[in-house]
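Hey,

The postdoc asked me to send both predictions to you directly instead of through the lab channel. I've kept everything plain text so nothing gets mangled by the mail client. Protein one:
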Amino acid sequence: MDNFVGWGRLLVRRALTLKTAKDTDHDDEEMPRHYGLLDLWLLGVGGTIGTGIFALCGRVANEDAGPAIILCWAFGGFATILSGLAYMELSSRFPDEGSTYAYSYHLLGELFAVISALLLSLEYGLSGCAVARAWADKLVAWFESLGWTENVGWVSYEYCNLAAGLMQLVCILLLAGGLSIGKRAVNIVSAAKVLLVLFLIIGGFILFKADNLSNGFPPPQIVDGEGNKRYGWDGVFRGTTSVFFGYIGFDEVCCLAAEAKNPRRNMPLAVIGVITGVCVLSILASLSLVGMQRYTEIDIDAGFGHAFETNGWKWASQFTQIGELLTLPVVVLVSFLAQPRLQLAMAQDRLLPKWIAHLTKSDNPLISIVIAGAYCMILTILVPFDPLGDLISAGVLLSFNISNVCLIMVRTKAHRPTLAPSLTWTFMLLSCCTAFVWQKTELESKAEWAFFGIFSLSTTIVGSLLCVFCPPGEIPGIPEASFRVPFVPLLPLLAIQLNWVLIAQQSWQGIGQLFGYLAFAVVVWLSYGFWHSKLRLYYDALSESEALLSQKSKPKRHMVMADCPSQVSSDWHPDHPTSP
């Protein structure tokens, strides 16, 4: 029975030890702070710009929205900024490794922290593997465009993609060689990628023809030969869901907050700078593409390269393809850069074995890099990722929602410690139901409209109660933020609803994969983290202290359940749980 003393507490209570930029566990090795504001911005832009502009622009313009693709990027940017606001405030309050994992650990407890970590692994690890495979496909396509059609397909087989594995290996070796090498590579290639996108924009506007935009904005809806609806406002909304993938990666800078210089100032600026930069560049690039070639003629796989070639700029087409091949790997590098840091944070909290958190003499998490590199290489070489796209998108959006919940908790629990969490999680459930009823039904029958009306009205009522009865405040002991999101909890509630709408647009296969993945996260926590975590050891030590005090019949106020382990004993340490 004693083994389960901390069960309920770990499920519902937040982490009690709050790490700050100047305060880390004295037994853990601290990462040095290398990244300035420009480094963070280049890292975020380099890790975000990639498949969004180089691949999604052409596909979405041709199949979904036509010239209105710029609205897709604008709507997607708005939804991203709403969630990005939460990251701006939380990263300045908790400048730790782990992004959403760190926020969940401090504010929601271990179970949600482990779930967040596994969701982030979809973004950092799995999506990076998918980009490596996309790079390998572009490599083969470039060889074929040069006439090298024989004996090149073997480098990019579906179940044995050697080119993608080689790309992943290069990223592993760069980071294993030291942070300074990896940082220089990211900065150089990210800057080159921004210059490449500017070349695409300028070239597109030089070849711009207004007649290519003359069929409406958006174009009238049509039904193709397979019965699929295309264009119209429905196409714009479908396109918004697709291009949202182009914004994934902005929060990777938050995973490096523990290595950022002056994180309370630089992290909010880096987050909003990355989102704004990606949004502006993507809108301009999309406008230049649909302006130099009619949207119905755009190649869905090589949009810019084909458009330049059609307009007689074959040299620009070759330059674009080579530029994509040289700059797209930085997305893989940045994604992989964040994954070992996430594992490092979990190991420091003893949710993974402690030895994973070891740093070399040059302050490099080499063990974590090798472990992450091993399974990322295996996945990259052997696993085709097309069936996993919806899982990745849904998982990332769910991690955004968890971050928004963390923001609501940190700002509203001070005055309503019980009511605020209850209303927040109720809103999460109801807004999810509302989004799925709206997206997954045709809303043609009275029953469907009734369900939608009940869920949407209930969601509105619960959200209104949260806004009225849970005013913002500061929880004692929580670090102050250099940036504070306005209109809390209204804005994070809107972000949660929008994210659920985007999640509901994913396929049922992807949603089913997400549920299975969440179950796997719970198993991971129960099999190791629950038994070895710092919080578990703390609660065990606290229970032993309370038992000793009870036996002596001399209860002391400072030994009662508190909000900080230091109130139990300033000498308590996770490796010596009986020290109190």
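Protein two:
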Amino acid sequence: MNINIDNNNGGRRVTTGGRMGYNRRRGRNRGRSGPDRFHQYNSNNRQGGFDRDGDADMAGASRDNPHGVRPTYRGRGGGHQRSWSAGDRSQNSAARRLGLPIRQDASSGSNSSTWFKVTIPFARELGKDYIFQSINNAVEIPFSPYCFLMGNDGKAMFYIQGADQASALQTMNKRITLPNGYKMIITVRQSEAPPFKMDQGVVALIEAAVQRRWNPVALMLNLSNFANDDVLKAEGIFASLTRPNVFHRIVEIIEEKIPQMEILDLSENKLMKLDVLGSARLSSLKRLNLGKNQIRHDSELETLKNLKLVEVNLENNPLCNQFKDPEKYISAIRKRFPKLKVLDGNDLPAPIGTAIDEEEAVVPHRLPGSVQDHSVNGVLTSFNAEFFRIFDSSNRQGLLDAYHDQAIFTMSYFINFEHQSKQWKFDKYFADSRNFMKVNDEGKKLRVVKLGRLPIVSSFTSAFPPTTHDFGSFTVDSHIATAALIVFTVYGVFKELESEEKSAPIRAFYRTFVLIPDGAGVFKIVNDQLTLTNASGPQASNAFTNNALPSMSVAQAVPTMPSEDIKNQMIVQFSQQSGMNEGFSRQCLEVHEWNYDKAGQAFLELNGQGKIPPEAFVKSST
């Protein structure tokens, strides 16, 4: 049903598509032949504020005044003028007059960000300029159309933002006289943001806008409220940074044209996500303004943690309301930006910690291993070769003699997400893992501890699949080496031989052993801590290319003679392995300057040649 208002008759006569006339002086309901003769609201026809034809619902409006605004009269029977109250002038009232649902803006409480699609039929001969000029002359508020399009059916379509503009244009429906004598039909519908196509012309305009906003003296780029850039707006381009393609293109422009940028203002852009900015290469950026956006949680800043920011502004974002304690707010933001000095315009106290500049810090050269006393090289080399050979065998029970009766074993795993190599699952290790970051059950923390050599070795069969270790990947660090205690850590990789994966998983491991001598002077494992994680890309690609067991090296030190305690321990160990008595074992070690490997090699050669006297194998009975 079309409502036609005849302006030549003072707005008094309203026709309804050929049906009976209506005169305001006769009253609102006279001459009505039926309940739906003119217009009756049906709640079943209303869908989101629109009828089934998509037009704004006019339910509850007066019959000759479809927008629901009651006029005030001047004089008896004369014309009338609209009298707008303060509430009617508000954007919420404008939306209600259109029968539109009120959508509150999270930051301002208004619905000024709501979009509307305007359709004008029979507009091909009118053209864009005539349509815009006619509407602009008729309405009393600023008129800002976006994305004009002329359809194949002759309909002109464009978008406007805000309920005030929508109300003003709907009021002009069939009130603008066209050159052919007909009235301009204007249909207004609530819609999503206008479609946006990044063609070469649009990209060129966006690049020009970025260049206009760039300050080369201050090294600052001001992208505040970019969607309302005057030049882009005049071209009918809605280049909002909430559109990923727009934000991506602007970031590319920054990377290519102005990589020296130190200050970036992104305020008032309604940003909720920052992943586009987080993936950018902005090594020079030091100050970032994100004020007056829609960032709801501080976790969104996690994507920006690689930026070395010294100043951040987050004022008037929803996330600020989540922190009642200012100290917790500062702590949460500083967690992402450790170098932060200014937050929301306020100077921050210096952080507690070491004052080492990352750019000045020098990472020491990585050594293949570190052993405090070179005399234990042979002991550790022999231990690792024998221990992991048995562990990789089909019978791990052979490790029983390596453990002390009261030995303790624990295992835990973690996933290093910084490694971009394939992440194999750790499901099979979950039940026995003691990673306190993942295990909250206090009972489990105790249950997964293996106490005693038999439970320990039994768990190697039940909890671990068959493996093969890459001896060429081993790095050994000795922390303590005395006659009473040896503590060392082995780093390396191993491969699981039986797995549901398509390819055999390669794991990285860190294993710390604590050894003490038993009553016979033989070192036993009293503590064994194993940590598993995913192998890095280089570790996985270089695995098993050189499977020779490396000898332990001393960290940039000149070999020194072992202490008397270590000498005595070496003598006992050498005597047990060679079968010679301690006197000949001492002589053999002294001749080779207490180098355990050389002494052992010499013993094997001489014993194979039969040059060692029989009395060397006679041990004292005392």
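Summary for protein two, as requested: The first strand starts at residue 4 and ends at 5.

Thanks,
C.
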